[in-house]
């Protein structure tokens, strides 16, 4: 990626600063990636239409991205975008939505837009909750998570949005996190270029709400980096071997007690393994044990199984969220199909 | 499209024909009785004239797509009935807030809820006016014949374009499903929304005395900010009380200022009337027959048939109240327009409702007897 100063992107693509986003929010990162993707593709800003719904994600383009923007009702961005794209297919239409907006109230429009394979790129910012309204359960909130509407743990299960949208017929489907800015930017370029329905889920930090959901008791200024590290810890990129040889030890009760116990055990034997406390989306705050090689890892796993303070030992990939591009297909695009209808009717 | 001249068609077909002649090139809808023939005819005819027909996943999406298309430059429409009309309300509110021209046809059926799907009513009189939350002025038209399904659909588009507002065509299952003579003229007059001429524009504010701002479309380089949130004249989100109040007052004023022009009342026998019968849509048909019969019997009755329901013609009715001795309001609900009439006449004359529900249209005899009873009390 050619290096351009930040001011270049800001002056050309961003308006109405400062943004209203909380410190540590992923929205600014996503807007930044989007501006770079648009710049890289050399798109005419006058022909870009950004459509959004309701929620923090809606404010990524509106009013900040310097193109036509349509900030619509809750969950309906894709339906509005469909009308605009059909009537003026010269527009590059990009929908910004959130997990509540796009998969909750707007879930029906999401699967139907995918089914039609309309040439719209949808960027769904998944912060695992309804953040703007105070941090309620979303259709992406993990089972057991404590939110303000699941104070005793979430009784529901989350959607796997990429599998859902892929099954519905989207022709480009990818998932990244706000940490993976290079991959995300490349993915946005590819999604916009795809002549069909493209979907990118971006798992994104929300220090304001996730702090409570993940039970992080740090001072607020430490939370953003802690969440970013968790996003890296809990994900892996499809097709790429995980770096190193490690496993996780899930503590039976307190993390501190488990950490001390494991450190003591590892210290007694010379296995060349290191242990540290990490945050994991699926397992919570756990111990990660890194080893020198695969044989050492097997021995460590066996050893950890015998530590009473450790409840369970899980493999490196177990419970991790897969990132990457899952679908690249070609199918008839909706507006092209409408043109075909028009030809058959004799209207062109 | 049907050629100009005389035809025997369904009211719903006349509506679709009128829409296409008014310039409608985008339709998004969802199946519902008794509005299906509009959707079906649009699916058949729009692609033939280079227009787009979309069947959406629900009425919410239909209304949303219509608004999106309108901002892309289309004259756009959807058609539905009560249950679907209820689902559309949030996005209709969005259309008011963003001053988006579009036409919504509600072929009323008997409700609430699923009610009597195939049977007519006039129960959405208030939903058409107050269905969305917040403050706005609605423009609502009411056809009484197949011909008016055509004429008022054209007028709905013209008013929508002129005032940059959604216009509701409040038809009903009887008019929609009735076959009658339709005369299609050689040419219909159409109105186009004001577009900005210069390089910049304020799409949500204007110095023009009409109070209707110019409306650019997407893709023209204006880098529009369109939002349902409170916004300043440029479109930028702004929650300050001053901005929102100015916006809502201008939106109201742009419609009320033109009330005299939007007003559309057809009178029959009102010149010497002592009893003024007020009706609209399907129920105006037996009302007309009853008034004519009463006049033959020597009862001085007259008919006021509202073709524009909203803005409600308060000023006009207040004047009529000074000239007649009684009002009879005939409608197919448990009393809706009658409340507005009472408000307008302000207790100066007796107002009697004749209400029918259950999916029936009152008969000429029923209305005639009601006129007689009113007459006997004078």
Structure description:
The complex is a heterodimer of chains A (348) and B (378). Helix content of chain A is 37%, strand content 21%. Chain A has 348 residues and is α/β, with parallel strands linked by helices. Chain A has two domains: 6-233 and 322-339, 3-Layer(aba) Sandwich (Rossmann fold), CATH 3.40.50.970; 243-316, Alpha-Beta Plaits (2-Layer Sandwich). Chain A has an eight-stranded mixed beta sheet with strand order 2-1-3-4-6-5-12-7, sandwiched between helices. The longest helix of chain A is centred in the N-terminal third of the chain and has 15 residues, at 27-41. In chain B, the strands form three sheets. In chain B, strands 2, 3, 4, 5, 6, 7, 8 and 14 form an eight-stranded mixed beta sheet that branches. Chain B is globular. Chain B is built from 13 helices and 16 strands. The model of chain B has no long low-confidence stretch (mean pLDDT 97). Chain B is of the alpha/beta class and 378 residues long. Chain B has two domains: 5-184, Thiamin diphosphate (ThDP)-binding fold, Pyr/PP domains (Rossmann fold, 3-Layer(aba) Sandwich); 265-377, Rossmann fold (3-Layer(aba) Sandwich), CATH 3.40.50.920. Chain B has helices at residues 11-22, 36-45, 59-71, 82-97, 127-130, 146-163, 173-176, 241-256, 259-262, 284-296, 314-321, 337-345, 364-377, and strands at residues 5-10, 26-29, 52-55, 76-80, 102-110, 116-120, 139-141, 166-172, 179-184, 225-227, 265-268, 275-279, 301-306, 308-310, 326-331, 350-355. Classes of the chains: A alpha/beta (348), B alpha/beta (378).
């Amino acid at each position: 990626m050619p290096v351009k100063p930040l001011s270049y992107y800001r002056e050309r693509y961003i308006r109405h600063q400062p943004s209203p986003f909380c410190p540590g929010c992923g929205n600014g990162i996503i807007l930044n990636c989007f501006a770079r993707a648009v710049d890289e593709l050399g798109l005419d800003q006058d022909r870009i239409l950004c459509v959004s719904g309701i929620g923090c994600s809606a404010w990524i383009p509106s009013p900040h991205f310097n193109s036509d923007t349509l900030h619509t009702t809750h969950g309906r961005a894709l339906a509005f975008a469909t009308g605009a794209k059909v009537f003026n297919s010269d527009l590059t239409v990009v929908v910004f939505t959130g997990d509540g907006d796009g998969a909750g109230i707007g879930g029906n429009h999401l699967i139907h837009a995918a089914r039609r394979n309309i040439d719209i790129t949808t960027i769904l910012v998944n912060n695992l909750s309804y953040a703007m309204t105070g941090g309620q359960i979303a259709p992406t909130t993990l089972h057991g998570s404590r939110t303000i509407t699941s104070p005793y743990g979430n009784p529901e299960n989350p959607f796997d949005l990429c599998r859902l949208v892929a099954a519905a017929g989207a022709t480009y489907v990818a998932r990244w996190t706000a940490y993976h800015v290079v991959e995300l930017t490349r993915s946005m370029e590819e999604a916009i270029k795809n002549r069909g329905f493209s979907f990118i889920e971006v798992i994104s930090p929300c220090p304001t709400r996730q702090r409570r959901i993940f039970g992080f008791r740090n001072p607020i200024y430490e939370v953003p980096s802690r969440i970013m590290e968790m996003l890296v810890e809990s994900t892996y990129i499809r097709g790429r071997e995980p770096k190193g040889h490690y496993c996780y030890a899930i503590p039976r009760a307190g993390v501190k007690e488990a950490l001390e116990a494991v450190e003591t055990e590892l210290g007694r034997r010379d296995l060349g393994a290191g242990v540290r406390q990490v945050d994991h989306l699926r397992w919570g705050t756990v111990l990660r044990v890194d080893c020198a090689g695969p044989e050492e890892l097997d021995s460590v796993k066996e050893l950890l199984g015998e530590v009473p303070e450790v409840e369970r030992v899980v493999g490196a990939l177990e419970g991790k969220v897969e990132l990457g591009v899952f679908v690249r297909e070609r199918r008839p695009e909706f507006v092209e199909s409408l043109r075909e209808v028009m030809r058959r009717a004799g209207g062109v | 499209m049907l050629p100009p001249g005389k035809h025997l068609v369904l009211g719903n077909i006349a509506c679709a024909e009128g829409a296409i002649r008014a310039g409608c090139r985008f339709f998004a809808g969802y199946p519902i009785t008794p509005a299906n023939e509009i959707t079906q005819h649009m699916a058949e005819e729009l692609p033939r004239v280079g227009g787009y027909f979309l069947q959406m996943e629900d009425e919410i999406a239909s209304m949303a797509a219509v608004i999106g298309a309108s901002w892309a430059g289309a004259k756009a429409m959807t058609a539905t009935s009560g249950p679907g009309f209820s689902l559309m309300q949030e996005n209709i509110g969005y259309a008011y807030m963003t001053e988006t021209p579009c036409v919504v046809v509600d072929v009323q059926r008997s409700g609430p809820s699923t009610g009597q799907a195939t049977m007519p009513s006039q129960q959405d009189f208030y939903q058409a006016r107050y269905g969305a939350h917040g403050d706005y002025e609605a423009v609502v038209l009411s056809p009484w014949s197949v011909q008016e399904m055509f004429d008022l659909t054209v007028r709905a588009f013209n008013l929508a374009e002129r005032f940059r507002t959604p216009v509701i065509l409040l038809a009903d299952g009887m008019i929609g499903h009735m076959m009658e003579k339709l005369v299609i003229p050689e040419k219909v007059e159409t109105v186009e929304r004001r577009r900005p001429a210069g390089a910049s524009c304020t799409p949500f504010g204007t110095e023009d005395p009409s109070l209707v701002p110019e409306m650019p479309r997407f893709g023209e380089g204006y880098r529009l900010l369109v939002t349902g949130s409170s916004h300043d004249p440029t479109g930028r989100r702004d929650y300050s009380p001053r901005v929102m109040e100015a916006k809502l007052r201008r939106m109201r004023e742009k419609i009320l200022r033109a009330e005299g022009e939007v007003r559309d009342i057809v009178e029959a026998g009102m010149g010497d009337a002592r009893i003024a019968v007020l009706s609209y849509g399907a129920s105006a048909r037996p009302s007309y027959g009853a008034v004519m019969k009463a006049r033959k019997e020597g009862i001085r009755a007259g008919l006021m048939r509202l073709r524009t329901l909203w803005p409600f013609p308060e000023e006009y009715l207040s004047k009529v109240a000074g000239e007649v001795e009684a009002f009879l309001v005939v409608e197919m609900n448990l009393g809706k327009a009658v409340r507005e009439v009472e408000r307008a006449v302000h207790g100066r004359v007796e107002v009697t409702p004749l209400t029918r529900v259950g999916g029936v249209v009152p008969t000429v005899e029923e209305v005639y007897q009601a006129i007689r009873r009113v007459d006997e009390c004078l």
